[in-house]
Amino acid sequence: MTINSLATYRPKLHFAPKKNWMNDPNGLVYFQGEYHLFFQHHPEGTTWGPMHWGHAVSKDMITWEELDIALYPDEHGTIFSGSAVVDWNNTSGFFPEEPGLVAIFTHHLDGIEEKPQVQTQSLAFSHDKGRTWTKYEGNPVLGHDTKVDFRDPKVFWHKETEKWIMSLATGHTITFYSSPNLIDWKFESEFGEGIGSHDGVWECPDLFTLKIEDSEEEKWVLIVSIGDNPEFDRGSFTQYFTGSFNGSTFTADHESIKLLDFGKDNYAGVSFSDIPDEDGRRIYLGWMSNWRYANQVPTEGWRSQMTLPRELAVRKVGEDYKVIQRLVGELNSYFSEKVDIDECIVEGTKTLKVEESYVDLTLNLERVDAEQFGITVHHTKEQHTTITFDSVKNVLVLDRKKSGQIDFSDMFLLDQEVKLENTDNVQLRLVVDSSSLELLVNDGEYSLTSLVYPDKACEAISIHTFNGTIKAAGYVSIPCK
């Protein structure tokens, strides 16, 4: 592996730090024309270490400017995950003249000898659009006497009750607190016992409303990330619950496990705060990695990238409610040309040459009688990633065993699979970047996010069938030159 080939892994469309380690997105907030991305950052190494808050800003969530580190460790501990909000009405008292940003984050102190770790919630505020930060002199503002895992505060203003609501990861539950001023917090309720997946510790919650498609109704959605458990082959992943929230208690519609992403590499994602009402979108961003191998992925000088930003909605499917993900429209301006794939019958293989540093494929596939069909992204002549629809089992399988550099993790070799309602008609959108694939199926009903480490992003894309034919049509979007 050459230094040059390692450099090719740096993404063209996704945010990655200039150097050293990154994990969870933190403090996602929109303020005065800028999207802010804070992130878990170890500025002294390329593996996880003492956490700081790194910082980047963007006008469109695709091109980011990395700024100075926002929050450094102090006597209360290192700086774990959290959120940021605009205090429009100066409820905190930090902004007597004009609104500003408040960061709500976890202070983490490692356990010493027989003493357990200590995790508390603290505040910092900024008067200059997040360029400099002042930590609140009364930190920490929230702790717990017995909960060892007590972290990742996600805060929003609940208009109906006129108070701030905090969702906090507390072991295998999410605990809700309320506050009039971001400083004084009151326990409201605890959610999670006996419901959903408990394969690992619960982390990085987010609670918000989403509009139900083709309806004026809304649903509350609670996102919960699940930490890696070495007993299972899944690694870290993210689940969600739909339900209702009355300002104190979240009540889920279901006890079943619903995955936000069926790929291996979308974790700890949360949504942006304070998107303007006239915009109306709920925009989500995740960490594109998996705790099973995040410290071992084959990049040099930097580690990790974020997913592309996605607009979320809820779709009613029968009596079920599903969270839908669509890539934000801002992405379209990074492509200048569409190469049409005219409607055709495919039996065997049809190949389109696409030698680009990143591509965006939209494709409709209608099964005629094929037992299996799908697409292959040919990174190089020897390296490829295959996406297959099995019409007998009604499953989608993403296979990256021959995608390039793979020898850093046994779990990286495992197929990524999702059960579909049927495979008679499938619509997919696939964005291929230097070291990732983001696949959205059936207008965002299913998501598979996957890292790959090939020598090139894409040389060709082929449509293939097995034992029969399909109808195919769509287009490939080509990058701006």
Automatic annotation (TrEMBL):
Residues 14-324 form the Glycosyl hydrolase family 32 N-terminal domain. Pfam families: Glyco_hydro_32C (PF08244), Glyco_hydro_32N (PF00251). InterPro entries: ConA-like_dom_sf, Glyco_hydro_32, Glyco_hydro_32_AS, Glyco_hydro_32_C, Glyco_hydro_32_N, Glyco_hydro_beta-prop_sf. It comes from Alkalihalophilus lindianensis. The keyword Glycosyltransferase does not apply. Residues 348-470 form the Glycosyl hydrolase family 32 C-terminal domain. Gene3D superfamilies: Exo-inulinase, domain 1, Glycosyl hydrolase domain, family 43. One of its GO terms (molecular function) is hydrolase activity. This is Glycoside hydrolase family 32 protein. Transmembrane segments: none annotated. Keywords: Glycosidase, Hydrolase. Belongs to the glycosyl hydrolase 32 family. Signal peptide: none annotated.
